[in-house]
Amino acid sequence: MGASSGPRLSGMQRQVLSLYRGFLRAARLKSADDRQKIESLISNEFRCNAKNVDSKNFLTLSTCFAVVRNSLISSGALILLDYQP
């Protein structure tokens, strides 16, 4: 009943994971060639940022997340992503 298969995630980790999955869902709406390029770009960006940002520095994490979220909100992209904060 509700057994998790991995470590328990913090609220910030869940939000970032939700944003990542939303990007991947949005990529599925594109053609097959574009989808591969977009998914590769998304994956590379998230991995690069994961390596460059200290996971224990909550202030930096929340600032990075807020900047991305706010820029997506202002561009209207979250409607396409169906992101639920």
From TrEMBL:
Keywords: Chaperone, Mitochondrion. One of its GO terms (biological process) is mitochondrial respiratory chain complex II assembly. The keyword Iron does not apply. It is found in: Mitochondrion matrix. The keyword Chaperone applies. Belongs to the complex I LYR family. SDHAF1 subfamily. This is Complex 1 LYR protein domain-containing protein. It comes from Rubus argutus.
